[in-house]
Amino acid sequence: MALRVAPCSVSIAAGSLACVTGGNASQARQGRLSFDAVSIARPARSVAVRAAESNVDQKTLSGVVFEPFREVQSDAFLLPSESNKSLARQRFDQSCESAINDQINVEYNVSYIYHALFAYFDRDNVALPGFAKYFKEASEEEREHAEKLMTYQNKRGGRVKLNTIVNPISEFDNSEKGDALHAMELALSLEKLTMEKLYCLHKVAEDAHDVQLTDYIESEFLSEQVEAIKKVSEYVAQLRRIGMDGHGIYHFDRILGEEGA
User: What residues form DSSP beta bridges with 16?
Assistant: First the structure.
């Protein structure tokens, strides 16, 4: 079976479109479609749309999502010309800078107390070298923490300001608990106090929306501080079992001196 297709011709007149499918002129006139309005309005719109689409396509193809040479001119990225101003400082609030200096002071004060404990247990009439070694290492560790914070302060473009250190006591003997238990309970309280101060520093960083500082505190200090509190808590529990027994304290001191050796 053959399919016959009538010849079709398209003619464009001024303001009209005619499609002739083999009928007469009258039918052709009836088939005319007016496109005056479309032909006038569409070209301007289509040019604007094509221009916008072209810009999107260019960004998509090039991968550029920002304009660095223009954006770097904003006030946030202008470098200070004064020689006494930090070039590295960025999004570092004054409250965070002050809080870091406060924490540096905390670490140095705790280090100073631990150094006093070292000096006490190193006396010839006390003669507990294990305790002396433990507190000397604890003092050095706290000083290292202070120095880490000082280094961090400089990295962020802050200024380190060292504050006054409180004079520690030099006698640690206690009539009810003895010197060993009394000193270790003091150490546990100091570790918990340091942890509380770190929480305060973290809160200042949170309030200032300083995500880098909060991450630094969490990764460099908090986990280590939790471990330290657990370790000293165990020492206190063991010394409470020993009580004032000199022989038991002597053996505890030997074990304490061997740890980390």
Answer: 13, 34
Strand bridging mode 9-13 / 16-20:
antiparallel
The SS3 of residue 208 is: coil
Q: What is the pLDDT of residue 237?
A: 98
225 is annotated as contributing to ligand binding: yes
Instruction: Give the model confidence (pLDDT) of 44-101 as tens digits.
Output: 555 555 655 665 555 556 677 878 777 778 777 778 888 888 888 888 999 999 999 9
What is the average pLDDT across 243-248?
95
Contact status, residue 126 vs residue 182, Cβ threshold 8 Å: no
142 is in an annotated binding site: yes
Whole-number Å distance between alpha carbons of 62 and 59: 5
Global pTM value = 0.72
Contact, 239 vs 134, CB < 8 A?
no
Q: Which of 117, 143, 141 is nearest to 129 (CA)?
A: 117
Q: Is 227 annotated as a binding residue?
A: no
Is 107 within any annotated ligand binding site?
yes
pLDDT digits (tens, 9 = 90+) for 124-156: 999 999 999 999 999 999 999 999 999 999 999
CA distance 25 to 16: 14
Domains parsed from the chain with CATH numbers: 13-62 (no CATH), 94-258 (1.20.1260.10)
Give the 3-state secondary structure of residue 9. Answer: strand
* Residue 259 marked as a ligand binder: no
